[in-house]
Amino acid sequence: LTPLLPHLDHRNRGMRTRLGCLSHKSDSYNDFTAILPDKPNRALNLPSPSFATPRVSLADGLAAFRAFLKTEFSEENLEFWLACEDFKKTRSAAKLASKAQRIFEEFIDVQAPREVNIDFQTRELTRRNVQEPSLSCFDQAQGKVHSLMEKDSYPRFLRSKIYTDLLSQTQRRLS
């Protein structure tokens, strides 16, 4: 989700590369804070409508983005993206296959409980990739979902009441 926050402080480029968005515990994947740098509570600079840049914590920002996605019935996109990031950290070949299958069944398979909106070709490529899983087997599907959030959900989030309320709360805490 790195391009989703082009306005992040450039000194935090490593954090943007790892997560690129806001962080909070996932509902279906125990703890993805391990994909963050050593200080998961580090704050990110997010734009505000008044051009001030209040510091919004990673956890608060992700909670707000997740809440926004729930209002749009599309939180599965963020959950899938985070599951893929967690999957890429898998070092055990035995765990790789079971994690790949679980992610596929939860997010990719037709009529999956939290099916993400991807095209047929990407779904079929991912199905084949999962047969012989590698750390990159979800890359194309993850890229499609990322692009969808970047071009669709995230710009609306930045204009939403949820986001403006988050900025207001942050500014009150800083005052």
UniProtKB/TrEMBL annotation:
Its main location: membrane. It comes from the Eukaryota. GO terms for cellular component: dendrite; nucleus; perikaryon; plasma membrane. It is found in: Cell membrane; Cell projection, Dendrite; Nucleus; Perikaryon. Residues 61-167 form the RGS domain. SMART domains: RGS (SM00315). It is a peripheral membrane protein. Transmembrane segments: none annotated. The keyword Metal-binding does not apply. GO terms for biological process: negative regulation of signal transduction. InterPro entries: RGS (IPR016137), RGS_sf (IPR036305), RGS_subdom1/3 (IPR024066), RGS_subdomain_2 (IPR044926). The keyword Cell membrane applies. SUPFAM superfamilies: Regulator of G-protein signaling, RGS (SSF48097). Keywords: Cell membrane, Cell projection, Membrane, Nucleus, Signal transduction inhibitor. This is Regulator of G-protein signaling 8. It comes from Chaetops frenatus.
